[in-house]
């Protein structure tokens, strides 16, 4: 039922090339999930999140110091290897230093016709964040207009908001089926869906979602849900790992990832000033740890999800060297403990030591299972 | 004119004597606890082999980790400088030297005169190529000397983490669990090391011809992986472990001849 | 025989006293009814100055660097932080600071003095998070100003106002949490001092263009630090003017920092603080580091001079920029600070490469040694690109790996080895004694 998403996930580059040919449109490589997709869609561009390929590589060390996270190095490697040679533009929406480093190096060494850096607020908690972010988005829209020789009207923006919101709403509907006692879909299926939505044409993705939603109510999962797990962490599209987890007696029912709920959870709500509406959507969305200060708002979102989806436990995926997540780690674990959510932390690199992780995951599941016995 | 080079490594001491453009003696000896004693003995053996007396040697240059404690050396040269000079003596077309030993990996960009133009050394996290293969050979229950040959029989690339030895070691355990064949794991190990080394070497802009020296040059499996990763021919000089000592001997030679590769102010 | 005469700095004693007074004032502030606040070296320290003359900061980075000098204490701090679950690859300043806080031990003796509030700014990802953890642990109010509005050459009104608006917001917040009335006159005075300190420091660095260099970087570390402690204070601004006059005098009399100077280098990022002897080792080759973008531009403020050279930024006072109101003063402070050279590479490594190459040229350098600092992701952001740019410009460059505040990640013998090899590439042998 989710094979289309899987196919999109596995053939992202073919998809984008084919999309360009079919529509004559332009593709924007986005470095972060904070990219204002509504504006891109309004301008007729295809937003395409740049992710790594989880392969060992030897091309990034020349450009990025080894203590930067494996993800940002994997991302840059994709550019240096020419895998994204169809991009018409690259877009940085101010994220962590590591991704910014990938963007800088990409800009210097991989020729792309259009580049733009949105100096998005890191402090989203100040009341000045929305108006300021609005001004940055206005600049971005103007730059896009100038480059593409088009004008982005309010009607275009309305359409952009509608299209992106629809996609978000449909994915949330699919997530609803993960709440059921016997989850109707696996975590891996959900991952194929959310991650592919980051580079597939939203309308096309949405129509596939609608098809799936028609069939989901009658779907017999054909497997035991087992322990209900939540995944927490930064970017995560480690398919072999989630597959492993779901083979040893568990199902991932929800996540807090920027390739998952943080990306699509909240909608863009209409306002007369469209760009303000869009700015507000990104300022208010579930925060990446890099933007989650002075208050910690992220943990509330996590707890709400864990409760709504009745998670028995959480696996925290710590991207090696990811400082913002490392700065959340001990308080997060304490918070989960206080709320009786057992948790396991694993440190991730671009590739995963599956055998070793399998032992830990199994031990963790045993531990969760034991609690039920008493 | 007769000059000598000594390479005082943690495990081995090598002495090379050169005369009128030719190597006339090569001696290898374990360092032992008293390195200076072993060094004197190695020098004595080399002199005997060359058939010359100590007084006839015009100049001695020491290199290697123990170079500062070398007895009777006139000058010192780092492993980087010695490898560069030694490599150019073996292959005048050499422009990049990759030196991979038990602990450290280095890439050196050299000029046609055998001078160092730029160099990179692996960061801590990517250290220990030689030691790593030893550990992997043990994990696979394969004699170390056979690990290279074994990996040549593999025709399958199994991806392995390229950043850190410790993480890679746990990946080998995973591969064993997943019943991956020993030959494919052996290749994966060499591919991973090659990837780390090439990754580091790309920091200096690699130029042909590429010469590989150091203990890992003896490992055919690693050499194959390195060629594949670099997408370049890699030259292995005969007896590659003597290259730094020879480089030191040639540096001494240059100096006496007045075309100092290393400019000395006295 | 050394080529050039050398002599110790006359104001060394004063520098030492000033530094001691800074930490003493902070530690004893509460006894006298004063306020203590904690924040970063880049915090807008001029802003809390408006709360009164008895308000004392402690800035985390220099405090942690001082811990790093004290290796046994540093080790206990780092281990305490790790024991509480924090990752070992986080900012080592932050880990030393947290350790000192958790252990409740002050590096200068006694208990760790609890601050009344935390006031930070944010450009590096660790900045905002650092004092989030402090505020939670100490249960104190916390305000952080986001300054990541892009490089100075792209600054416009919207970006400037985002910073200025937050500054205004921070003042309202300070009044609320301290119950004190804010004095704009004191703010204005502090902004003037900030501009004076940071411009004068650049002036001092310019004097190092001379051969022989009157200062070496190891000495500069002990001096630039005042800009990270209290750039807004009159004492620091006055001290820098005095120092500038002394360094000028050294130049006029041909006094060198290193008598046998024959190879001029620069470094990059914070040094491994526990191993400054690396710089002494360079001297064995007649080499010295005459500075870095780090020592010049972490605090110093710069601009293009009419003759095309890089020099101290002309102060708003010299330009006659109006600074009579709170808003005017904050605007000046924001604009002034956003031009800080060490804030530019957070968006674009190329901007930093250009400044570095400019230093190579104008300071007449022979080579560059980059500290691949595992302790600071902020200042090492883009460093690999900087290395490439320097190498492409045919300037000899070496890297050495280390950590500014975690000695476990620094290998002295290996570093010396690399320096030896680097000196060989530059064809320098040890200077015979």
Structure description:
The complex is a heterotrimer of chains A (374), B (266) and C (433). Chain A is an alpha/beta fold. In chain A, 50% of the residues lie in helices and 13% in strands. Chain A contains 16 helices and 8 strands. Chain A has a 4-stranded parallel beta sheet with strand order 2-1-3-4, with helices on both faces. In chain A, strands 6-5-7-8 form a 4-stranded parallel beta sheet, sandwiched between helices. In chain A, helix 7 runs antiparallel to helix 8. Helix content of chain B is 41%, strand content 20%. Chain B has a 5-stranded mixed beta sheet with strand order 3-2-1-4-5. A 5-stranded mixed beta sheet of chain B has the order 8-7-6-9-10. In chain B, a hairpin with a 3-residue loop joins strand 1 (2-8) and strand 2 (12-19). Residues 261-266 of chain B have low confidence and may be disordered. Chain C contains 16 helices and 10 strands. The model of chain C has no long low-confidence stretch (mean pLDDT 96). Classes of the chains: A alpha/beta (374), B alpha/beta (266), C alpha/beta (433). Chains in contact: A-B, A-C, B-C.
A few lines on this structure:
The complex is a heterotrimer of chains A (374), B (266) and C (433). Helix content of chain A is 50%, strand content 13%. Chain A is built from 16 helices and eight strands.
What's the architecture of the domain at 24-150 in chain A, going by CATH? 3-Layer(aba) Sandwich
Strand content of chain A: 5-15%
Strand content of chain C: 5-15%
Span of the ends, CA to CA of chain C: 8 Å
Taken in chain order, the helices and strands of chain C follow as HEEHHHEHEHHHHEHEHEEHHHEHEH
Q: What is the average per-residue confidence, as pLDDT of chain C, rounded to a whole number?
A: 96
Radius of gyration of chain A: 20 Å
How many strand units of chain C? 10
Looking at the chains present, what oligomeric state does this protein adopt? Answer: heterotrimer
Q: Strand order, main sheet of chain C: write it out.
A: 2-1-3-4
Instruction: Sketch the major β-sheet of chain C.
Output: 4 strands, parallel
Shape of chain A: globular
The SS-based structural class of chain C is: alpha/beta
Which CATH first-tier class of the domain at 24-150 in chain A would you pick?
A: Alpha Beta
Largest sheet of chain A: 4 strands, parallel
Largest interface: A-C, 43 and 51 residues
Please name the CATH topology of the domain at 24-150 in chain A: Rossmann fold
Class of secondary structure makeup of chain A: alpha/beta
């Amino acid at each position: 039922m989710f094979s289309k998403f899987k196919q999109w996930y596995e053939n992202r580059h073919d998809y984008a090339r084919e999309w360009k040919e079919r529509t004559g449109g332009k593709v924007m490589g986005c470095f972060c999930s904070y990219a204002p997709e509504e504006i891109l869609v309004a301008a007729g561009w295809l937003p395409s999140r740049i992710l790594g390929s989880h392969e060992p590589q030897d091309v990034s060390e020349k450009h990025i110091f080894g203590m930067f996270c494996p993800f940002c190095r994997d991302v840059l490697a994709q550019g240096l290897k020419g895998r994204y040679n169809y991009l018409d533009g690259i877009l940085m929406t101010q994220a962590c230093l590591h991704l910014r480093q990938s963007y800088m190096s990409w800009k210097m060494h991989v020729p792309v016709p259009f580049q733009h850096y949105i100096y998005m607020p890191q402090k989203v908690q100040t009341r000045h964040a929305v108006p300021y972010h609005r001004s940055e988005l206005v600049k971005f829209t103007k730059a896009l207009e100038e480059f593409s020789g088009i004008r982005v009207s309010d009607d275009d923006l309305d359409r952009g908001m509608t299209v992106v919101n629809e996609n978000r709403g449909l994915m949330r509907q699919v997530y609803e089926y993960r709440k059921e006692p016997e989850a109707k879909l696996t975590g891996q299926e959900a991952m194929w869906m959310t991650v592919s939505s980051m580079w597939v044409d939203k309308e096309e993705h949405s129509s596939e979602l609608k098809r799936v939603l028609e069939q989901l109510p009658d779907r017999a999962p054909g497997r035991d849900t087992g322990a209900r797990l939540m995944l927490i962490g930064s970017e995560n599209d480690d398919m072999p790992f989630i597959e492993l987890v779901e083979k040893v007696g568990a199902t991932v029912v929800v996540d807090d990832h920027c390739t998952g709920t943080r990306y699509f959870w909240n909608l863009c709500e209409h306002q007369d000033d469209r760009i303000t509406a869009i700015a507000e959507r990104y300022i208010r969305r579930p925060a990446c740890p890099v933007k989650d200060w002075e208050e910690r708002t992220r943990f509330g979102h996590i707890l709400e999800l864990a409760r709504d989806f009745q998670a028995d436990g959480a696996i925290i995926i710590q991207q090696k060297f990811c400082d913002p997540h490392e700065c959340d780690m001990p308080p997060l674990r304490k918070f989960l403990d206080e709320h009786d959510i057992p948790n396991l932390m694993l440190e991730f690199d671009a590739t995963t030591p599956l055998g070793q992780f399998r032992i830990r995951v199994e031990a963790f599941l045993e531990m969760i299972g034991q609690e039920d016995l008493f | 004119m007769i000059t000598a080079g000594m390479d005082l490594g943690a495990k081995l001491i090598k002495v090379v004597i050169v005369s009128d453009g030719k190597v006339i003696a090569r001696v290898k000896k374990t360092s032992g606890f008293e390195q200076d004693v072993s060094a004197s003995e190695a020098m004595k053996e080399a002199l005997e082999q060359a058939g010359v007396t100590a007084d006839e040697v015009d100049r001695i240059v020491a290199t290697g980790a123990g170079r500062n404690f070398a007895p009777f050396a006139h000058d010192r040269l780092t492993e980087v400088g010695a490898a560069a000079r030694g490599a150019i003596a073996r292959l005048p077309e050499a422009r990049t030297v990759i030196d991979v030993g038990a602990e450290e990996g280095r890439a050196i960009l050299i000029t046609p005169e055998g001078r160092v133009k730029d160099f990179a050394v692996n960061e801590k996290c990517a250290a220990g190529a030689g030691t790593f293969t030893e550990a992997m050979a043990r994990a696979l229950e394969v004699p170390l000397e056979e690990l290279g040959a074994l990996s040549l029989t593999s025709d399958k690339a199994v991806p392995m983490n390229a950043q850190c030895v410790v993480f890679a070691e746990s990946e080998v355990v995973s591969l064993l669990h997943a019943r991956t064949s020993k030959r494919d794991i052996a290749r994966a190990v060499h591919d991973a090391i090659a990837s780390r080394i090439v990754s580091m070497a790309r920091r200096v802009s690699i130029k042909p011809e590429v010469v590989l020296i150091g203990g890992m040059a003896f490992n055919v499996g690693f050499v194959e992986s390195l060629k594949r990763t670099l997408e370049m021919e890699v030259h292995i000089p005969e007896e590659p472990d003597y290259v730094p000592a020879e480089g030191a001997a040639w540096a001494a030679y240059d100096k006496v001849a007045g075309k100092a590769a290393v400019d000395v102010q006295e | 025989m050394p080529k050039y005469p050398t002599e110790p700095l006359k104001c060394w004693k004063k520098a030492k006293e000033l530094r001691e007074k800074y930490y003493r004032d902070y530690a004893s502030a509460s006894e006298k009814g004063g306020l203590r606040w904690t924040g970063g070296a880049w915090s807008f320290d001029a802003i809390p100055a408006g709360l009164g003359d008895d308000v004392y900061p402690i800035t985390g980075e220099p405090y942690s660097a001082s811990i790093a000098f004290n290796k046994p204490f540093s080790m206990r701090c780092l281990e305490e932080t790790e024991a509480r679950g924090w990752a070992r690859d986080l900012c080592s300043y932050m880990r030393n600071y947290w350790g000192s806080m958790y252990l409740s031990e002050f590096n200068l003796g006694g208990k760790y003095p609890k601050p009344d509030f935390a006031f930070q700014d944010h450009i590096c990802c660790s900045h905002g998070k650092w004092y989030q953890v402090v505020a939670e642990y100490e249960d104190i109010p916390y305000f952080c100003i986001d300054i990541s509005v892009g490089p100075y050459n792209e600054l416009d009104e919207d970006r400037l106002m985002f910073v200025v608006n937050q500054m205004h917001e921070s003042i309202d917040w300070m009044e609320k949490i301290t119950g004190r009335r804010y004095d704009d006159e004191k703010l204005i005075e502090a902004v003037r001092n900030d501009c004076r300190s940071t411009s004068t420091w650049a002036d001092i660095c310019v004097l190092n263009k001379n051969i022989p260099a009157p200062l070496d970087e190891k000495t500069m570390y002990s001096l630039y630090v005042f800009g990270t402690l209290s750039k807004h204070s009159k004492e620091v601004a006055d001290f820098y003017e005095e120092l500038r006059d002394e360094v000028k005098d050294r130049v006029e009399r041909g006094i060198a920092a290193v008598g046998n100077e024959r190879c001029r280098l620069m470094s990059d990022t914070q040094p491994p603080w526990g191993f400054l002897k690396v710089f002494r080792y360079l001297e064995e080759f007649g080499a010295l580091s005459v500075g870095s973008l780090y020592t010049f531009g972490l605090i110093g403020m710069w601009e293009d001079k009419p003759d095309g050279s890089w020099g101290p930024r002309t102060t708003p006072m010299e330009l006659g920029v109006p600074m009579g109101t709170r808003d005017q003063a904050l605007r000046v402070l924001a604009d002034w600070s956003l031009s800080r050279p060490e804030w530019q590479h957070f968006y674009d490594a190329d901007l930093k490469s250009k400044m570095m190459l400019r230093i190579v040229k104008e300071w007449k350098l022979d080579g560059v040694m980059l500290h691949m600092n595992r302790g600071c992701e902020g200042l090492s952001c883009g460093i690999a690109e900087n290395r490439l740019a320097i190498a492409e410009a045919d300037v000899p460059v070496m890297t050495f790996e280390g950590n500014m505040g975690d000695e476990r990640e620094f290998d002295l013998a290996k570093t010396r080895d690399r320096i030896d090899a680097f000196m060989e590439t530059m064809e320098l042998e040890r200077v015979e004694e």
